[in-house]
Design goal:
Layout: E1 4-9, E2 12-20, E3 26-28, H1 33-37, E4 57-60, E5 65-68, E6 71-72, H2 73-79, H3 82-91, H4 97-109, H5 117-123, H6 130-144, H7 151-177, H8 191-200, H9 211-224, H10 231-240, H11 246-257, H12 265-279, H13 282-290, H14 311-326, H15 332-346, H16 348-352, H17 360-370, H18 377-398
Helix pairs in contact: 2-9, 3-18, 4-7, 6-7, 6-11, 7-8, 7-18, 9-14, 9-17, 9-18, 10-11, 10-18, 11-18, 12-15, 12-17, 14-17
The chain binds acetyl coenzyme *A (ACO).
């Protein structure tokens, strides 16, 4: 029997169905709330609102579970390539060998960016943040590629272009920002290695591809590949719900991810750890984070959904140790991060607020070890998150219950007020 919720409002009683997902999560279906009662719900930050049903990613914030299409992220990080994970998210299942080969060929064929785009890059001020550049350039892609008549093929080619070109564009912005020669994609290299080569190869110092570094990028991107209805994904869905083109919707996602409370946290963590290292002020940072009157927060700590250790942070922490050991790097920020985590996890404030390290806490140290500059950290996150954004956008296209995203509000401004001409004000 379907559960129902009874709402008593005034002298009337209303019933609303309870919707249950495949993992037992329950929601009150209020789609008829306003038309039957005249009421709307008020839920700042949408913390209690399900904006859609989805079969892409499952997460349980209390148990620390994250699965893509049912497969635990730990298993994917252990066994899958980023390309397979991308295919899984977008198509709903892992590819067979033939499908994977075909997917690789298509990605390779679409890896170059239009030469005219270089002029855009070269004209951004040198101090521009790479996330701002990436968001603008992804949006600009729309103007460079003709729209195909066949809708399905148009969607497929747009998705492939984005997945492939985003690496080239990210590496290109890095090279141009340094005043270095742009390195083109190589067909003989796999997805992650190809990106690293475009970032770091130079005519005077050929880049030696290190399998441990390639593996770290692979795991980093798999861990970031999707995270259900987070801020940037919701931005992609909301913007996409106006039936805007995919480039524009992804550009909106990149802009949302830039924020320090979201993807920008990986950069903010390194800045915070560096400040602690420089000023030896860990105690002060903890005290500031607990102070209600101070906007400072411990970056890389806390999550809207996880009220336990973020499963991605566990993998990232382990990988951080392994990678630094293999590369024989000693990063003082890793010691500070571990000490900060230990102190915070014993502190009543962090215990009571269920604040644990999130994915961004250790990821910056991994990226530093690879040689990624700090201002490119969030770009790395964006490349990893792209398959998730695309999968969510595609799912919303096919959703029979799809609607233009348009929340309501409760107005609290002045009631009707008469206009006063300027000389009488
Ligand atoms: N440091 C100190 N206090 C914190 C932190 C933190 N990092 N995070 C949350 N809190 C406190 C808040 O002050 C608040 O305290 P109160 O209830 O006593 O007023 C309480 O915990 C709840 O905080 P909210 O902001 O309401 O929780 P929300 O679920 O909206 O926050 C968020 C989630 C934004 C991620 C928050 O934990 C945060 O700002 N963390 C730091 C930034 C960060 O690491 N972001 C990356 C998140 S992962 C990602 O997006 C990829």
């Amino acid at each position: 029997m379907t559960d129902t919720i009874r709402l008593i409002y005034g002298k009337k009683e209303y019933e609303f169905p309870v919707f249950e997902g495949s993992e037992g999560e329950k929601a009150i279906d209020i789609s008829q709330l306003r038309s039957t009662t005249g009421l709307i719900t008020l839920d700042p930050g949408y913390a209690n609102t399900g904006s859609c049903t989805s079969s892409i990613t499952f997460m349980d914030g209390e148990k620390g579970i994250l699965r893509y299409r049912g497969i635990p992220v730990e298993e994917l990080a252990e066994n899958a390539t980023f390309k397979e994970t991308t295919y899984l998210l977008i198509n709903g299942r892992l590819p067979n060998r033939q499908e994977l080969t075909r997917f690789s060929v298509r990605l390779n064929d679409n890896s170059l960016v239009h030469e005219d785009l270089r002029a855009f890059y070269e004209n951004f001020p040198r101090s521009s943040h790479p996330m701002g550049i990436l968001s603008a350039m992804v949006n600009a892609l729309k103007s460079f590629y003709p729209v195909l008549d066949n809708l399905e093929e148009e969607i497929n080619i747009t998705v492939t272009r984005l997945l492939s070109k985003i690496r080239t564009m990210a590496a290109m912005s890095y090279k141009i920002s340094r005043g270095h020669k742009v390195v083109y994609p190589r067909p003989d290299l796999a997805y992650c290695a190809n990106f690293l080569n475009m970032m770091f190869d130079s005519p005077v110092k050929p880049y030696e591809i290190d399998s441990d570094v390639v593996n770290a990028v692979r795991v980093f991107w798999i861990l970031h590949a999707d995270h259900e209805q987070n801020c940037s994904t919701s931005a992609v869905r909301l913007v996409g719900s106006a039936r805007v083109n995919l480039y524009a919707a992804i550009s909106a996602g990149i802009a949302a991810l830039w924020g320090p409370l979201h993807g920008g946290a990986n950069q903010a963590v390194i800045e915070m750890l560096s400040d602690i290292a420089k000023n030896r002020n860990m105690g002060k940072a903890i005290e500031r984070a607990k102070d209600k009157n101070d906007p400072f927060r411990l970056m890389g700590f806390g999550h809207r959904v996880y009220k336990t250790y973020d499963p991605r942070a566990k993998i990232m922490k382990k990988m951080c140790d392994t990678l630094l050991n293999k590369l024989k790097i000693s990063d003082p920020l890793l010691d500070i991060a571990k000490e900060l985590e230990e102190v915070a996890l014993k502190d009543d404030y962090f215990i009571e607020h269920s604040l644990y390290p999130n994915v961004d806490f250790y990821s910056g140290i991994v990226l530093r070890a690879i040689g990624i500059p700090t201002n490119m950290f969030t770009v790395m996150f964006a490349i990893g998150r792209l398959p998730g954004w695309v999968a969510q956008w595609k799912e919303s296209l096919d959703d029979p219950n799809w609607k233009l995203g348009r929340p309501r509000q409760i107005y609290i401004g002045p009631t009707q007020t008469q206009f006063v001409p300027v000389d009488k004000r």
